[in-house]
Amino acid sequence: WKLDDEVREIADKSLKYSELTWNVLGLGAVEARDWMRFTSSEVEAAESIGWNQATWDCWINHFRSYSWENLVFYGLDFEYAALGWTEFSWDGSADAPSSSDRSWDELSEDEKDHATKLCYFEDNWDMIDITPNNGKFPYPKPKSRFSPWNELSD
């Protein structure tokens, strides 16, 4: 799936992606922030290439920048708790759970189910380069983000 030069330019100029940060999931500085921490120009840029708060926070940020209180408020603590996270491991005052060090194949089917509800699939859990997956996710997958940098323009 190829995107035009305009999308690539928006990702580069407005969201500060490079070829490396686009192709290595989680490496882009912008991906560490949830939608509510975006500037108005970043919101406009992200919306212009098809993202919104729900798709960004789930597919790109995976709610990682949320506080534990916000996870509880949105009912996401259950999914992270099933992966072994606690309020203390989430805020860094306790060790991260063992699931965070395991590959997708090493997760139990139950853990995979909970991870999927946080918009993880094998490739983004394992931080592998972008490949398609047609799983049952809570939000539509933003295809532009899961396309390699060199496919963003014709």
List the helices and strands and how they pair.
Elements: H1 5-13, H2 19-23, H3 40-48, H4 53-60, H5 68-73, H6 77-82, H7 87-90, H8 109-116, H9 122-125
Please characterize this protein's 3D structure:
With 154 residues, the chain is mostly helical. It has 9 helices and no strands. The chain is globular.
Quickly count the helices.
Answer: 9
Tell me the total number of β-strands: 0
Extract low-pLDDT stretches. none
Alpha-beta content class: mainly alpha
User: How much of the residues is beta strand, in percent?
Assistant: under 5%
Shape: globular
Q: For the CA atoms, what is the radius of gyration?
A: 16 Å
Distance between the termini: 10 Å
Summarize the structure.
The protein is mainly α and 154 residues long. It is 38% helix and 0% strand.
